[in-house]
Amino acid sequence: MKKRYMSIVTACLCLATFLFLPGCGESLFKGLDGDTAARTAQEANENGDYARALSLSQATIHNPNASTEEKQAAYAEKGSALLGIHAISPLSLTSILKKTNEANLIDTLSTMFEITPSDSQEIADTFNMAYELGGGNLSAMSSVRISSGSESSLKTNKQFLRGLANLTVVVKMTTRVFHIATEGTVTKTSAVATYEEALDYLMGGSRTVFYYAENALNGFSSANALTQHQLQQAEKIRVVGLNLKNLHTAVKDRQTFRLQKYVNGTATPVTGIDAYIVALPESPDQREFVIIAALAKIFTYIKTP
């Protein structure tokens, strides 16, 4: 009964949003060529047999004789299978993004999917690899436009799932270290000892929250599947990522932090009554106080229409 239910849900998702596409395999399917394995993995995903699709995809990824095109398809299909395993639905995302005044977008998205930050990163990294194998390059992306960057042959339905996977990482990493109240007030969780440590977690690695936020928006815009309003709602996540990145740099280098927003796709310093400009102090205690105030400004942006 459970398997039948999952098949029905998967079929609905495929019709309503995007199909889970090709992968490849070994193990039980060792002798399949790339095209046959891709079709077999696609069918497995469409039927809710995500473990089988994952096995097929993994085998091609580790096959030294597989072509770049076959590996790209395998990574895309692996990502689709992992989304299915964790019950992450595109329909849930689009329903949230339809809201015109979501007071706490990150917290709302966080409660949608039960997945750890590390598992969400695995899925996003899988889709991002498929994007890069298709010729995509975010280093070519403009700093101010979410839709720019070098083109990738990754199919549009997979681009949307890539956006969803990367957005999930941003949400899960952020809510691991921060509780964000409706009005924008931010308090750290028990996962970190200080607010500065929380920033290090989000921005200290090679793949930061801002990296995943950029991939999310690039995926959504490349898929051309969201309305303008939905895209603007999702773009707020990238604004948060940009400001967290700048705040982390200011904290580490004792520089001045200045809040930024997007105006017609351009990153612009905030001015007037909402401006937040401050030089980060040397004292750790004083820095904590400034970081808390800056975070409140950063996350308040999400609740604006």
What does this structure look like?
With 305 residues, the protein is mainly alpha-helical. The protein has two domains: 1-85, no CATH class; 92-303, no CATH class. Helix content is 58%, strand content 7%. The strands form three sheets. The chain has a two-stranded antiparallel ribbon with strand order 1-2. The protein has a two-stranded antiparallel sheet with strand order 3-6. Strands 4-5 form a two-stranded antiparallel ribbon. A hairpin with a 2-residue loop joins strand 4 and strand 5 (266-269). Helix 8 runs antiparallel to helix 10. It is elongated.
> Low-confidence runs (pLDDT<50, min 5 residues)?
1-31, 140-148
Span of the ends, CA to CA: 42 Å
Multimeric status of the protein: single chain
Overall radius of gyration: 20 Å
Query: What percent of residues are in strands?
Result: 5-15%
Structural class: mainly alpha
C-alpha geometry: elongated
Question: How many strands in all?
Answer: 6
Strand order of the largest sheet: 1-2
Number of helices: 12
How many strands, which pairing sense, and closed or not: the largest β-sheet?
A: 2 strands, antiparallel
Helix-strand sequence:
HHHHHHHHEEHHHEEEEH
Task: Count structural domains.
Answer: 2
Rounded mean pLDDT is 76
